[in-house]
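Consider a protein example.
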Amino acid sequence: MRHSAVILAALLFSFNESLVVARKNKYIVPGATWYDTDGNVLSAHAGGVVKTNDKWYWFGQNERLDDEDLFSGINVYSSSDLLNWENEGRALSPIPGTDIGPDKVVERPKAVFNIPTQTWVLWFHADNSTYGELRQGVATSPNITGQLKCLCTFVGRLKAMHVFGSGPYTFRETFQPLGGPSQDFGLFQDVDGSAYALYSNGDADSNHDNLITRMNANFTNVEEVVYTFYDFDLEAPTILYTGKRYYILMSHKTGYRPNNVVVFSAQKLTGPWSVQSYIATLGTRTWNSQSTFTLTVGEREPTYIYCGDQWATADTLYDSRYVWLPAKIDDQTGSFDIEWHDLYTIDVKTGHVTVPEGQDYEAEDGLIAGSDAYVTLCPTCSKSRIVTGIQGNSTVTIKNIIGTGEPQWVSVHYHDPDGLWGDNRGGVSVLSRSATYSVNGGAPITIIQHSGSAGIILSQPLNITFNEGRGNNITFAGLNGGTDLTP
């Protein structure tokens, strides 16, 4: 991604800053960088979460800045509250010379437990660097994390040791399911214990279908097509069951560019399935995310959580984020709608979602400097006003922010209509634009703000430590006098 830029007049700031004390992982913050309990960036992209023994386990692709290999591993994290995630290590690592070698594609991992064999089975999409093999892969382990665990007692020297587990998942094989291609991958386990593989059959002229296939008895292959969505050409499938209806979410195929995720519903996996509808406000491109899995949290009145990946670019996958949002589901109409929250917390026992309140600060009430920035009308903005033209030497400074002396979450609400998205005068799509902010006169910090559409107000989460009390300032400016156009 090129960071040569400023905010054009198209990237406008009208924002409410919700200031809430942000203790470590106290909230789910969609679009923020998430950290594990060791303080490292949580890397579990395009993954899946499974719950066992009152703990959730999150499997996902390892993407790091210093990784040079195409496939560097599948990570697994555990949590008892969906907020604080412990790194359990590498569930699957590259094996040179095999279908999961460092030069191969291994992505969209999902884990499921097979009761008859007492085995955890890790599924994934397997491919080569050009996505020409279109296969599914399987690895197995007797324990969920695939890691060695040691319970040791020390009294001066080792007194007792008990080792359980057998190390990382054992790679078994890759294959084309039922002799056909498999593109992307999702997994669903029904209430009766049956497991299903979800995938597209590729981009060949004769394909473009999406399949639900039943797995065999030991969950190591598929044996039957249950339903085919003919000629929909979608990807990133995930299924949720409410007890009354099944909901399958899938995205369009636009690479790492976000799009409008769609949902179908049915009373049976075999159909008939409803027509498709969108799950988020149009113009947000599903709040700049792609579907990857869903969560059911709570018992009596559960909350359903949409879990998506907010991809960066192919060259900066390590900077991709996560967007987890509560969903409202109506089994009578088959609607599935996700609600945006800047941050929230959830009670894992009851499923109750709590959204904290904060203090609002309006950009148009701030100090505007430079020759380009000005206040103008914005019908969808708070108080119907916005500051635009923050480019070149122009800035806007919000003053007298109340700080706690501890880290606080700041939600910056902005408008980026992306005039070049779909513009027929060129071929460049503006996926994001860059700006800088500085706190109390400090060094500027670069932020990347994802694109939206006309009238859509998006939110950028920042974690800032202000001085305690009043008198804090935050200044927003363009970046290096240009525009960040991401192809």
About this structure: Residues 194 and 215 are 7 Å apart (CA to CA).
